[in-house]
């Protein structure tokens, strides 16, 4: 798909930011920067160029980094006056995951505006925030904002794969360009009703990953004589069944405990959600989207997602390969995951060769920080009497690269109550992604308030 031409939105600091961010988001969606994990996919340069065009003419310093052809990230800086003041990095990715149009009610890359919602791949994950961060940064610069601390906007490539051509490359090779004290990226901020007011989750950490390939061996033979054969596909099917049925122990870690304790639920809900023995029973009573999230927050998960095997319809396969997505909890080691895999496979463990493909440890940032205090303060502007609460995301974000460097990194945004926690979660990598324009405008205002509060 060819990139969307961008006609600069005619605006000044008095223009309605909702209209401006909606326009920019629709352009980003139409660029269709689909990242399938291959080095030649993504083509994020389309949106890096689009955003450069949008931001040019302001007082921002702009720089593009392209480690591989087409895999471009854009950095915009508003330099602070005090080198001792904190630096804030607003980071949004420009790539999106592949999509099957058959499951959609509208064109996934049409960026249609229908009944106050923008439809399209990336509308939720996370072009809405990428666009709103850009609009806020431009408005601050054009409005004469002279902060003590430096503000950096990063539109980064390759988040939807491993970050090799995006955040990881920049942290490893262009450190000075993105050096910061605090980072905000996806994906918190969805208001959750509770007995004592709205709670807004701040992503303070994320699970780790242990991606592996399970090689199941058998003995080849003629497909016309299957009796008492050693069919690798049949064995692999049992391996998949055991992984699906395996239930590791519930882990009540510190971030989960603080999240549930902050929600204000009555004891009959709080107590089982904090009990390793009772949590699974409680999940059966929750909406399925929330139950999946809560289960993943408290368990090591095993998801067999890809299978390869067999060569010909009349030949019994002697090798089947299964690719399994394992997500790890804080503090878990590779040795612990290997033991869990062995427990899941039981007597089949000796039949399975485990090949580690990729993986990273879980990461988390502290809560007692000036950035946490800033988010808690400015959130009151939108939802008076609400409270920010810590949350562990069960997927991976680019925040992990910064946390490894000791940089406090959170996931946040600002959303209207038109989207539920359940709907928000189901649209990540799902069908019919869309975001309401009210949320877009709220996020622009959020980033402006955060920058003014934290950077001075």
Mind explaining what this structure looks like?
Helices cover 33% and strands 21% of the residues. It is an alpha+beta fold and 456 residues long. The chain folds into 2 domains: 280 residues, Aminopeptidase (3-Layer(aba) Sandwich), CATH 3.40.630; 153 residues, Alpha-Beta Plaits. The strands form 5 sheets. The protein has a 6-stranded mixed β-sheet. A 4-stranded antiparallel β-sheet has the order 11-13-9-14. The protein has a 3-stranded antiparallel β-sheet with strand order 4-5-18. Helix 3 packs across helix 15. The N terminus is likely disordered.
In short:
With 456 residues, the chain is of the alpha+beta class.
Characteristics of this structure?
single chain; 456 residues; alpha+beta; Aminopeptidase; Alpha-Beta Plaits; 2 domains; six-stranded mixed beta sheet; four-stranded antiparallel beta sheet; 15 helices; disordered N terminus
Unreliable residue runs: 1-6
State Rg: 23 Å
Beta content: 15-25%
Q: What is the mean predicted local confidence, pLDDT?
A: 93
List the helices and strands and how they pair.
Blueprint (H helix, E strand, L loop, with lengths): L16 H14 L14 H11 L5 E5 L7 E6 L9 E6 L19 E2 L2 E3 L7 H16 L8 E6 L10 H7 L1 H4 L3 E4 L13 E8 L1 E10 L3 E2 L9 H14 L8 H9 L4 H7 L5 H5 L4 H11 L2 E9 L5 E2 L2 E10 L5 H12 L6 E9 L2 E2 L5 H10 L7 E7 L5 H5 L4 E4 L9 H7 L6 E3 H19 L1
Parallel strand pairs: 3-6, 3-7, 7-17, 8-16
Antiparallel strand pairs: 1-2, 2-6, 4-5, 5-18, 8-15, 9-13, 9-14, 10-12, 11-13
Helix pairs in contact: 1-3, 1-15, 3-15, 10-14, 12-15
